[in-house]
Amino acid sequence: MKKITFILLAVFLVVGCNTNTKKEETTKESEKEVVAETKKYPENLQKVFDAHGGINKWNDAQTLIYEIVKPEKNEKHITDLPSRKTRLEGNNFTIGYDGKDVWLAQKDSTAFRSNARFYHNLYFYFYAMPFVLGDDGITYEKAESLSYEGVLYPGYKISYGNGVGDSPEDNYFIYYNPETYKMEWLGYTVTYFNGKPSEKISYIRYANWQKINGVVLPKILTWYKSEDHKITEARNSVEFTNVILTEKPMEEKMYTRPEDAVIVPKG
């Protein structure tokens, strides 16, 4: 009887130790997963994300839809946020990105006159600010404050690692309100067409906002003229309407290249 009791006690201790060990291993693995999923941003950039509804809220979303107001017909943009697959429906043309290729379908050769590869995600990056500045492969550094009408807007310079996107040499400059931490200005360079770093910075003002599913997104973007990095006067505005931000993904066929579409080459 004593032997049986001793054996049972030994088995209990071994099982208990193994269980505790497994619990400790599971806890450690969970901690590792949490650390892996938690990305560190500069403190004030994190405050900018928070002022716009939070980066976690944005990351939970799967699909972003909006329309750009145009005289002849609104242009509808649909983006799968995790993969950045896109579909743009314009006046007699459709542009898409299926995860591999950018494609263009149009009723005639004059329906879309610009570079479809450059255009397919151009407005998405402007519209999805500041959240796209939380993407992987980004380097942050403090920028010199932007001055406009007597107000100094602190900011960050955003640069990309080699091989990130079609134009890794592009730079962005985000400037925020020093009191509310809402984004107010974006500076950006364009290197897509020649691949060389550019000193010319274009500026967009973010002054009109709308809350969509708990996330604060732009309603109107206004481009400004500038001289020697000093902002002068408004140039033109773009209005966004019928905005949807949802945790529901679209069907894959939304981004699939139609038979009558052509693949747009790089360059």
Description:
By secondary structure, this protein is an alpha+beta fold. The chain folds into 2 domains: 1-38; 51-264, outer membrane lipoprotein receptor (LolB), chain A (Clam). It contains 5 helices and 13 strands. It has helices at residues 2-37, 43-51, 55-60, 116-119, 122-127; strands spanning 63-68, 75-80, 85-89, 93-97, 102-106, 138-148, 151-160, 171-176, 183-188, 202-212, 215-227, 230-246, 262-264. Strands 6-7-8-9-10-11-12-1-2-3-4-5-13 form a 13-stranded antiparallel β-sheet. Strand 3 and strand 4 (93-97) form a beta hairpin. Mean pLDDT is 85; it is low at 1-37 and 163-167.
Please describe the structure with a list of short key phrases separated by commas or semicolons.
13-stranded antiparallel β-sheet, outer membrane lipoprotein receptor (LolB), chain A, single chain, 267 residues, alpha+beta, 2 domains
